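Researcher: Please predict.
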Amino acid sequence: MSQQPDTTPDISVVVIVYNDAARLPTAVQSVLDQTLRNVEVIIADDCSTDGSFEVAQQLAARSDRVRAIQLPENSGGCGEPRNQGIAVARGRYVMFLDSDDTLELNACRNMLDAAESTGADLVSGLCLRVHTDSRNGKKVKWYPWLYRETRTFDSVAEIPDLMVFDTLSTNKCYRREFLLDSGLTFPKGIHYEDLLFSAQAYLAASRITLIPNTVYHWNVVEKAAAKSISNRRHEINNFADRVEIHRRIDRVLDEMGQTELKLHKDRKFLKHDLVLYLRDLPFLDDDYRHRFAELARGYIQGFSPEAYEELSPVHRLCAYLLLQEDWKNLTPAIDTLINPRKISSPLAEREGRVYWCEEHLDDPLARKILDVTDLGYHTRPVQRMWLRNQVTSYAENPAGIKVSGAVVNPLGVIPPGAELKAELEFRARRRSLQKFRFPVQSVQHEGETVAWQATVPLAAKFRPLGIVDEVWDVRLYLSVDGVQATSRLTVGQTALEDAGVVRVRPRLGRMTADRLVPHASAKGHLAFRLAQHGTLAQRTTTLVRRNLQSPPATLAKKMARKVVKARKDLHSGPRKIETYHRMIRLLPVRKGTVVFESHLGKQYSDSPRAIYEEMRRRNLPFHVIWSYAGERPTGFPDDVELVRRWSWPYLRALAQAEFWIDNQGFPLKLSKRPETTYIQTWHGSALKRMGFDEPKYRIKPEHEQRAYQEAIDRFDYFVVRGRHDERTLAPAYRITEDRLLRTGYPRNDALVRARDAGTLDPAARELAERLGIRLDRPVVLYAPTFREQNGKVKKFEFPFDVDEFADRFGDRFTLLVRTHYLNNVTLPPSVAGRVVNVSGEPDITPVLLLADALITDYSSVMFDYALLQRPMVFFTYDWEEYVDNSRGTYFDLSQEAPGPVVHTAEDLFGVLEGLDTLASEQEARLKEFVAQYGEYDRGDAAAQIVDRFFGNRGDAR
């Protein structure tokens, strides 16, 4: 008797549906089209009233791989239909699909392969959010960092971010026996059932596999009239359901003793879940807000203090102010939460610190939470402030609008006697050649705000084109003593619902639009939309929209999208790299062209600057080009040719240059032609291990190591400043002996000259005058390096109390602070004049010249500053941790440092008490240090390089 073939499906896909008859067939077809054929579909209808079940039955009749079931009554959520689907599923694995979404073509095959090869109870893949109503086909990957590569874990505790962030049930494949044995079901009659089910599945799974493949297409309709469950955040029951689901998850975590996972989840609730609802609060009534605050307070007041530690200052203060139901200060804080660059509060300064508001400061906890000093608001001039501009009244008539508002005045940055003027600008959101500006009739200083009022004759003077410029944003340009600050108009609870009587006359005629309707943008700002009120305009718009769906229009849009895609492709990185390499094959070298770059184009500084200025001093006939990064170049000479990094002119300049000179590395993927000479000046001697001496490079795949080596091999010459560099940097980057330039660093020529001259360098004097630094007191520079944690740069924090430092030494010397370029620092107002932040200075050389002493740690600045033969103190408060967590060091700093090595703030202060005698005590050690680590720095490095490569038009190499 022959054996019956096994008809068990590999995977059962449960497709849930409720009143979605139109989209259900597409979802089901995405399963039937899977490259894995042994898949069954179970359609679970939640008692639809629109014929969805009839459609499901028709689909089942057409395919023996489809079954349809219907719940006897509507369950009110997604959970129970999925439960019923699991109950009747026959597959070895189970997946879930919503009727308005689709599976990626290979989803089932990729999921099954991963599950079978790893033995995982649960496999999770990448979800793609597809914005179906987006004009540009917007697609967003759902937490892609989790899915960069295939990984398998024995416990979700190994990867807390997975449980905390990817709470979907639909981008996953579950072993059916695992679901049944674990008793896993979705909660009934409550929203956000995915959160609880996913958490329970993660915690129960004995093995979890993540795959980098896209498996699920989550279709999002932002403009839908009937919002999905996740988009109905303004309904109070919605928030109540979310809180209840989180409470249930907390009980599971508590039962399992997963306190660390709960801490991760609480942080995510504060940073993400809560913020989703806070965004809507300014637009909702007092009753809703009070009920919301009660629900939130009842839940988050039990969070541990550690849950707040990794939050941004604005997140923290929003949570605190919500618990206090302080709507006066919370509403502006929410505005800044939505618009991070915006300053929304008048702020308050107390005892040298800056606080969000003056209320609650008697409470020590509130004082800590409301402290926003580190955000640096107090350091910005008015033209660099994006200020909250609250609409205080709005009225309209057919001729236009009358609007008034209040611009916040933080810390009185706008003085009472300032000359104030303002204009309103209407600007099309889609790119347009048109802008319309209208004068603001009244602008008045009112202490914590600047009040303004304008009557805007839109009907007479606002002339949009029509159709293509439907949405218009509004800005206020406020002139303060001739300096301009820009703001957007925040609407909040301003009544706009019954507005829309302003008449408009587009250039394409009133048949395209005849009204201008105000609304609040996604960021809470006043915006306007062209609308159709009259019969003619409505008919015309209907006709236009119908024609836009016609075959010719569809073809035209398709062609237009192709043009846009081609334009994007033209400016894409791969296309630029390909074209660049074509340039170096086809274009000739431009003799005498030199391309300079410093710190990846971020600065006009360092050794490239020193070489350039030596060439300019000699008036050599070379064509010099400097690269810059960012939107606008700052700090570069006015008379030099500039090209933006990665722009087409930049690529062409590199392709045809005779010389490349930089201190860090031109883009790694750009090859160098043989006729171009690349002089790499580098940017510092090494204490920390570099290049291929770093552990992370030694474990990289062979092809990545090879690509890195090829980029380094572009260097024709590599500048070194001593035998230490020859023993460390040269082998670390595998640079051969013949390519070493033993000239010393050109940037250090100024330091050697200043040491020999014994007088204050003019550049240092100019810096002191510009920053208001007294020259009758010693100047001490604190210049630490950055710290890493888990592969990321840690936020800079002073390892000593900067206020105590200023109080103790502020009347004796001035402290300059310069952080590593990967860090930034904000000083409190309390230390103004005594501690000065010089981190923004593009070139460190004048800073070093000005400093009478240096406090550093492991920074390479020690090697440069030693040339001045001035005292140094090494504050290595975290030496063991630094060595353990970093890439390792080439020598023991505690043994080699040419100055005191201290480990505590009190020891540091004690050494500084004897600053006057420190120089004489350390003189011999400093000379020995320079001889050991910088013997080639003799003050003529730039001259040597220019002589060799450019003195005779660069012929002698």
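Model: Confidence is low (pLDDT under 50) at residues 224-232.
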